[in-house]
Amino acid sequence: MKSFMMRLAVAAAAFSLTAAAHAQDYPKRPVTMIVPFAAGGTSDVIARVVAEEMTKSLGQPIVIENVAGAGGSTALTRAARAEPDGYTIAIGNAGTSAATYTIYPKLPFTPESFVPIAVVAKTFGIVALRKDFPAKNLQDFIAYAKKNPGKVNLGHAGVGSSNFLICKSFEHAAGIEVTLVGYRGAAPALTDAIGGQIDGVCDSAASVSQAIDDKLVKGLVVGSTVRLSTLPDLPMSSEAGLPEFEAQGWNGLFAPKGTPPAIIAKLNAAAKTAVESEAVKKRFHDLSTVAPDANELASEVLGRLVTRDVAKYRKLLEEKK
User: Fold this and answer.
1) pTM score, two decimals?
2) What SS3 class is residue 113?
3) Digit-coded pLDDT (tens) for 256-277
């Protein structure tokens, strides 16, 4: 037994040394960042902004791969099954990385299938309407929706996405019944709202603020405790008479379970440098998005957010069944 334990210890030490050597050389080739939605949506835009700056720290390009479908579950299945070598990572949010476990209870992955790297952005949810919708403000909209239950349709980026959660949170807070229309990303949903094919969208400020500013759609409310500097005329939920509507979200980076801690540390450091750069802060400001504070950048902070939001959205979604 003593001989066996000694061999086991030697093997473990050798494995650790090998992993450390690989981590020291990492990365030797491009890294793939999987985005769970179509190009043009919030997660995609944030991923590209952050990846561009992380590339400078890592010395290798980060290639964005958009894998849409099943509210992000298709992409995260692929990410969970990838080699845990640091060359495949994914960006997720409260929808894809927390609520999805209630929406799709038979997923081939669990929260433990991933190692958190870092929170990279804080986002704000907005409800916006087609520009000719017959409601001047939030209270008008709620009154209209109550008189026409199920007839108002709001688009989102797919069941399980953060935009879907904005819709569900808004519907719950307002006490209304609307028809939710899922798309393969935020961009096609917004396109249909602009074209008048749907009544409006639940979206992140990062992807809908420009359309509001250009008067292609009209902003109804932002689920935030502060007004957005890029949309100063858009009322926050408490000002609009619906303080229960809260839609402040996050985007974070994840790696497959088993990725060596030293590689996670390198990725975390690159993400931290990226979101603290003036280039990313300026771009985020233009997108009505906020970079995390210094005390929010440790990988364990993202892990705690996932745990919190799994419970939070299980409660919300099971109440609405």
Assistant:
1) 0.85
2) helix
3) 999 999 999 999 999 999 999 9
